Amino acid sequence: MPEHPVTRRSIGQRVAVLLCLASAGSAWAAAPAGASAVAATGTPAEPPALLLPVQGITASGLRDTFGDGRDGGQRGHEAIDIPAATGTPVLAVDDGRIVKLFLSQPGGITVYQFDPSGRLAYYYAHLERYADGLAEGQAVRRGSVIGYVGATGNASPDAPHLHFAIFRLGPEKQWWKGEPVNPFTYLGGKPP
Description:
By secondary structure, the protein is of the alpha+beta class. Helix content is 14%, strand content 29%.
């Protein structure tokens, strides 16, 4: 008697496929707060809608400086600058963890924060100082004060501002390296 087209083997294969689909659905449902469903599927992480990182600044006050050239066009800006008075509080844009407090020649006093999924790094630069008690490894909540606007590093003393950048991290989770993402629309900026 000929074997029916649906054999034990094909039933087992179908069950395996269904289990994989169910597992993928569970991973999507269990994605951490702040992580998009896209991030849970293994494709590039997309930032959520973020809090404006400078207290008192509204989205209408943002200017998209991501594509501006620096050093005579030798490098891209890959961030946005948010002008504000020296000492204005700088806020965490998302929940996450402080991974590095760093002093650099170009950025001055800086903070690197990872998002809850560990797939995005937020970079805050040219700070006047850190918030009291801020430490590497510390969990922060969206809206927590992490520092204060300044003009450290290569920023002009006459133009205090926050240099804010977002990077998609690779599997190594290197805070100093990643794929730049334009923060403008994620902070509520509207193209002209």
